[in-house]
Each structure stands twice: as structure tokens, then as C-alpha cells.
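Workshop exercise sheet. Pairs work together: one partner reads the sequence aloud, the other fills in the structure field after running the prediction. Swap roles for the next sheet.
Pair: D.N. / O.F.
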Amino acid sequence: MKIFRGFAIAGALVAFALAMLGSWTRINNAGMTCPDWPLCQGAIVPALHGGVVFEWAHRLLAGLETFVVAGLIAIGWRMRASIPALGPMLIALGAVFVLQVLIGGATIKFANSPPSVTIHWGTAMLLLATLVSLVVVAFAYKPGRIAPAIARRGVGPLFIATAWLWVTMCLGAFVSSSGAGLACPSVPGCSTTFLAQTGPQTLQMIHRFFAAGVFVLGATGLMLLPATRRRAAATTRIAVILSAIQIALGVLNVLHEMPMALREAHAATAMATFLTFVVATAFTSLEAAGEPDFAAAPASASA
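Structure field:
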């Protein structure tokens, strides 16, 4: 189990760094400094200068992640009998990783078009979510009996909040890559009205609506959690706070006309918020499946 945990942590950390590096590469307009794939400027190791460093490092890190993911799947597959959900999760991990690699190549082929960038980012978040969920399972899973119905309360709302945030991030990627980040130069409305007049403005306002929805759904999920679920509640509380910080960063980006530092902070906080929601959902799902402390309650009461 220790080796599996180590690979799971390594996979999640490398994937996080990979996604952040990819985001920074795009923000710095370096995504097409390697116009071919899988080589970079026709070489395995190109002349490293300017934006090429970002893009080539991104690909190098992706190569490292290949070995980490392969090792994680190989080790975890032998443990799948002891953890019921592990087998399907490892299959999902392998499928999403292969898909992400292929989409990465397609993104270059389509010259970092907004749809390709959005799909690449969305798949990266699915990969990260799977890896982080595996970390939670590796450390927090405990076999137990089926928990009472009240223990399952809160799983649905948190899952919805997490999925909603994933859509919000995909919308943000499309807004950013299509140059619509300042289509609405004021907040909370678009110029003097909440009604968008152009396509880019519509994208911007939809993204803002979804961002506000993340906070509302997260807070709702927190209120619906049973009081005894302290671990899930604490994680959800952090996720809700991060979502508020993320909204504030979005507002600052608009007011200050999207300086590089704020754009990168906005991307990093979005990932941190999403992953915290993923952890909260994973905790809630494990607790709903029946951990010993929850499963023991009915037995002790009947005794």
C-alpha cells in the first residue's frame, strides 16, 4: 500500500504541475513554439530559448507522467480485490490519460484553437480529478458495512458542485483562449447592462454566472452534509472559501485588464478550488459507503 500511495501522490503532483505549466504556456502565448508533435521543431530536444522552454518542459513533464501513471496502474491492479472501486478507477485513469495525450497532439495540429484548448484543459482536469481521488482512496479507504441513509446525504450536491465547477473552468478556458477575457470590461454587468451584445460578451457573462453558481452550490452542499461528517465538511468549507477567492481574482482581472500575474493566479486558484471539491466529494462518497465509525453506530445503539 505504501508504494501505491507514493505513486498516487507523485501522479497527482506531476499532473498538477503539468496542468499549471500548460496554462502558463498558453497565457504566455508559447503554445505554438513547438509547431509539430511529438517532436519539437523537428527534434527531441530543440534549441531552448524563449517560449520553447515552456512548451518543451510541458511535453517533458507529460513524458514523466506516462511512467508514473503506468506504475500506478500496474501496482494498483494487483490490489483491486481489496478495494472494490479501485479497478474501475484505474481503468478510467488509463483511458483518460491516453485520451489526454492524443488531445494534446491534436491541440498542436489545430494550432491551439479555442475548442481544442478547452477540450485539452477539460480532460486535464478529469485526469487530475481521477488521480486525486485515487490519493484519497489510498489514504482514507476503510472497509465497512453499508452506512445508514443519512450518511449518503450530501454526496449528490457536492458532486453537482464539482461537475458545475468543471464546466465553469472549461468555459473559462474558452473565454481566455478566444480572447474574450475583457469582452465585458466592467463588473458585475457588461458595460451598462447585464445583457450581452456580442458573442464574446455572452461567453463572458455565462462564465460569470457559472462562477457564482459554484459558490452557491458549494455552500448548499456544505449545509446538506450531516454534522458528523467533519472531514468532508472541513474540506468543503475550504472549497467554498477558495471559490470566493477565485471570484475575487476574476473581478480583479477585469478591473486591472488581465495582468499576467493575476491571470496565472486565477488559473492556479481555479485548479486548487476544483481539486478541493474533488477531495470533498471523494471523502463524502467514502463516508457514504460506510466507514467503521459510521457503520458501528447502529450496532452500538441496538446493543
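Discussion prompt: The chain has two domains: 1-141, 147-303. What would you look at next?
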